Amino acid sequence: MQNHSILTRRQFLGHTACAGLSLTGIFNALGTLRLMNATLSAQAAPLDDYKAIICLFMFGGNDANNMLIPFDDENHAAYIASRDNLGLPKVAPPETPDTPLILPLNGSGGDGREYAVHPNMSPLRTLFNEGKLAFLSNVGTLVAPITRAEYRAGGAAIPPYLFSHNDQQLQWQTSLPASSRKIGWGGRLADLLKSLNEGSQLSMNISIAGNNYFQVGNEVFQYHISTNGTVGLRDYTSTNAPARQQYRGLSDNLGMTYSHLFEAEYASILNRAISTDDLVRTTLGATPRFDRTPPADGSGPNDQNLFPTARGSTGSLTGLASQLHMILRLIHAQSALSMRRQIFFCSIGGFDTHDNQIVDHANLMRTVSNAVHDFYRATETLGFADKITLFTASDFNRTYSSNGKGSDHAWGGAQFVIGGGVDGGKIYGRMPILQSGGPDDTGNRGNWIPSISTDEYAATIAKWFGVAPANMPLVLPNIGRFALPDLGFYRAGV
Predict the structure, then answer these.
(1) Is 302 exposed, middle or buried (0-12, 13-18, 19+ CB in 10 A)?
(2) Which residues partner with 43 through β-bridges?
(3) Domain extents for the chain?
(4) What is the CATH number that goes with domain 48-231+287-332+339-481?
(5) What gap in Å lies between CA 429 and CA 85, rounded to an integer?
(6) Start-to-end C-alpha separation, the chain
(7) Which terminal Cβ of the chain has fewer Cβ within 10 Å, N or C?
(8) What is the pLDDT of residues 168-213, one digit of tens each?
(9) Cα distance between residue 179 and residue 183, in whole Å
(10) pTM above 0.85, yes or no
(11) Cα gap 79→74, rounded to integer Å
(12) d(CA 66, CA 150)
C-alpha cells in the first residue's frame, strides 16, 4: 500500500512557493510586494476618522435619460420629439391636467442647458438643491477614451460584450475589462486599506444584497448579512437542550487539533465565522433600529423612525430601504465593531425596461429616491453624514429612442453621488449632445459614448476614502489611461 504522508503547513507553503517561481508568479509577487508597501504606508498615515462608501447597484440598466432630463424649452422639445412615448412633460396637457411633471433643478449643468429630474424624484431634487447630491453626467465602461468616428471605424478598444448585462455588471464592479480574474475594485480597495481596521474581526466589505464582484478581494472577502440580521448558526448558543447537544458536538470537533492542513484551516474558518456571527448579532442587538416610532408613553424601545417615507403600500420598508436601514445600523455600530473603514453593497433590480417602461421606471425612481433620501437624512440626524458616500451604478444606460413600449440596452448614462462631503448641487462632466445620430451617439438610436469612465468615477471616491494618488493603480490598474483621476465632486478638506 502506498504511504500517503500528511501535508504539513510548512510543506504546503513550500510547495506553493516553488510553484510560483514562474514569470507570472514573479510578477504577481512583485505586485504583492507593492501592495504590502502601500498597505504599510496607509497604516502609518494619520487617518483617525471613520469613512464608509456604499455602492447602490441598479440591476438591469437604468434609463438615465429619464432620470436627468433637459428642461429649457428648446432642448426639452427636442427630447420629447426623440423619446416619443417615453418623453416626460414639463407642462401638463389640457386634457390630462394631473399629469406628473418633471422637476427643474436649481442652476444649469455648466453647459448653459437647464435640467430636471423625474417627477418621482422630488426628495432627491431637494438634496441636490441643498448641495448634498451631485450628478455625474455621462458615465460608462471604457477601455480607453473613444470618439464616435473611432467607434464607427472599428478597431478601437471598446469594452467586451458591450451590451451584455452580465459582462457590463462585471466591468462596472471590477474596472477590469476582459479579465478572467473577478476581483472587484472595492475588494482591491479593502486589500489596500485593511490595516486601518486592525483589531476588528469583521470584514471591511459587507453586502446586504448577496454575492457581488465589487467586493471580491485577494485578501478581504465580503461578509453577507440580511436585512433582518446575521446569517449564521442560529441555535449555536441556544439554551434549548436538544439544540445545545447538537451544537456541542460541532464545537468539540472544531476545538480539536488537526495535523492535516486543510482540516485545520476548515476548522479555523468555521470558528471565525461563528465568532463573527456572535459579535455582529450581539452588537446589532444593542443598536437602535431607527425604523419605528416608540409608543407615546415611553414604554417601547429607545428607537426613532428615521425612514418615514421609504415604505410600501403595507407600511413596511421597501426592499432597498431595508438594506439601507441595516447599513445605517452597522455604521452606527462602527465603534463597537472596531471599524474605521467600511464598504457596503446594496442593490435594486427591475431596470431592464424593454416593456411598460413609463410605469415601471416611475415606480423604481420613487423607491430609489425615497430610500436614499431617508437614509441620508438619517445620517444627518445621527451626526455622521460627512463620513459616508453613497454612489449609484448600473449595467448601462438605455437608448434615447423608444422601441414602442420601452427602451433597449445602450452605454453611457448619468449617475448620482450623495454625502455630507459631496460638493453637490452640480452636474459634473460633459453632458452628451442628446441627438440620435449626433456626435455622441454610436449609431442612430441615442446610444451615448461615455465621457467619464467608471475608473475616473471610482478613483474620485477611492481618493476620498484614503487612497494616495501614487497607490491608485493598485485599486484601478487602468486609471492612467484617463485624464481625470479626480472629478472634483468632493468639498476641499473632507
Answers:
(1) exposed
(2) none
(3) 9-44, 48-231+287-332+339-481
(4) 3.40.720
(5) 28
(6) 68
(7) N
(8) 999 999 999 877 778 999 999 999 999 999 989 999 999 999 999 9
(9) 9
(10) yes
(11) 9
(12) 28
